[in-house]
């Protein structure tokens, strides 16, 4: 029993010791210096502010006439990171390449440009590369393997322990469950390596690097991998247990792993409010493991007439488990989707539609099994038993399809995250009398916020008497939208605007009232991106 308590302690440690820095799919909101700004003197640091807390990964500086330099000593508090710069930066345009990871396990990156003294030709950083196919496939297969081990393997051991240990007399079932649990350990290890590759944005050739594995372990997926390995290991030990008491104890502790592992990372568990979403994910995953875990033992036991008692228990409790599964799943989906049109307008929504279709088929088979086939099977009808086994096999196939669809969510941020991660549009406006940094941050509703940093002709911030803004489509399809900005405590002038949905090109005009008799009029153009 001391070994069981040790395993419980390891689970608690895995849950509590992982980094807590980030909470969702993040996006860069603003920076200091602002993107495209021209500074009179070289800054000693760069500040990056994200829409959500993040954990730092890789930062590099590219300067005129020089190669990339790694920026070390990055510090941060939640959503704000501070990057120290080398002293005495050369005149010209510099690029800061950044890469961070958010709590849902997704790495994001970008490049910030600023100039010292005057703008120059920007250093070449090469085209941004897509995730290598080998990394994508590795991430996907690792998740399918983890789901199979946690739900079918661990859930299967738990069902056998508490429903009918006699089903383990089938050596084939023991071998299948052991293989699934071994797959869980292997998938967790593969997932750690491939997570590190993806986080650092490197190819498969870097798999032997220590920092790749360390990075994978430091992300939130590291918790999931550790919990999955502990749960799978406990399941293997349970299958070898000599007594029913030990089998049930090990299986019960292992049964915590599916819920804890999925609640430790991913889109759903990273959503606010955390106090609601993580327990919901735990309940959802635990219900899947209880129900899906029963399928393999029943499929092996029923043909040999050893599973009738287990079938009775399963049929009696299944409706309550399904209720937990469906209610928790509906709430999670509602929070993640945000809007009805996201079901067909986003990749995440389309995957969810396919997943719901597969789940509906599984539910249809389950209802048919319970209402049509269960009673004849309990009465000893051999034909009904064969039909039920074939139906369970079909359920298993559909369950694996569901696992594959759920694993693809690793590459499709939910509409909730996309709506909060619409990238800001930054524009440097330049005139003879003054300059301004213009930042328009689109919102999911089609509205936007506008921030203005006024600068004098030398690029030094100053305080105009008034800042007014005009936005108009360049095609002349509507009258200009006019606004007067208000100065905030940080010196920025802010306002909001509605009705900017679409992808049209807009003309931006910023009027800076320098004095009662002097005004600077600055113009530029922006192109709005379509909302995800």
Structure description:
This protein has 532 residues and is of the alpha+beta class. It has 14 helices and 18 strands. It has helices at 2-17, 133-163, 171-200, 210-218, 220-239, 244-254, 256-263, 274-293, 295-301, 308-337, 342-345, 347-378, 382-407, 415-420; strands at 28-32, 37-39, 45-50, 55-62, 69-70, 75-77, 80-84, 92-101, 107-116, 425-430, 434-442, 448-456, 466-473, 481-484, 486-487, 493-497, 505-515, 518-527. A hairpin with a 7-residue loop joins strand 13 (466-473) and strand 14 (481-484). Helix 3 packs across helix 4 (210-218), helix 9 runs antiparallel to helix 13 (382-407) and helix 10 (308-337) packs antiparallel against helix 12. The longest helix is centred in the C-terminal third of the chain and has 32 residues, at 347-378. The radius of gyration is 28 Å and the shape is elongated. Residues 1-24 have low confidence and may be disordered.
* Strands, count: 18
Q: What would the average pLDDT be, to the nearest integer?
A: 80
Q: Structural class of the helices, strands and pairings? A: alpha+beta
Strand order of the largest sheet: 2-9-8-4-5
Estimate the strand proportion: 15-25%
Low-confidence spans:
1-24
User: Percent range for helical residues?
Assistant: 40-55%
Q: Helical stretch count? A: 14
